[in-house]
Amino acid sequence: MSIPARAHNFGTYFVTASCAERRRVFQVDRNAKLLVETILHYRDHFLLHAYVVMPDHFHLILTPQDVTLERAMQYIKGGFSHRYNAAKSLNRILWQKGYTDHRIRDAKDYEVRKRYVEQNPVVRGIAESATEFVYSSANGSVAMDDYLSG
User: Exposed/middle/buried for 80, CB within 10 Å: 0-12, 13-18, 19+?
Assistant: First the structure.
């Protein structure tokens, strides 16, 4: 049985994508910065509510606007892969296939997921506080879109 296409994605989603073989691609600052730049580059296609770039994966909370969730993730993962490989003259597979997503059900669910995203670097021991972690919306360096429930 094939996986059904994600043709309509009305709502807000908590999404996780991991590097192939759990390689720590984003442990290198230049790579983490490039992923954040890529996410922000495609932001006109979705509302961005929270993000964190960990050494081997990332989490987002986003609301697709003029594209499906699947297309938004293709933009982000594919856009990063293209930029990364072009800069290094490589043709490397960087991502595990697919991604995991969870549709945000209500404001409480949103707050739980947002806290998870923001606290991930602290829980994993790579930051003392969420606000000091550079590659996260928790530090306030990038304005996030408001979450509109309903």
Answer: buried
How many C-beta neighbours within 10 Å does residue 51 have?
Answer: 24
Q: What's the one-letter identity of residue 119? A: Q
Angle at 107 between CA 16 and CA 45, to 5 degrees: 50
Closest C-alpha to 49, from 130, 150, 118, 121: 118
What is the third-level CATH fold of 13-139?
Alpha-Beta Plaits (3.30.70)
Q: List, for residues 101-128, the tens digit of each pLDDT value.
A: 999 999 999 999 999 999 999 999 999 9
- C-alpha to C-alpha distance for 14 and 134, rounded to whole angstroms: 20
Q: Is the whole model's pTM more than 0.70, yes or no? A: yes
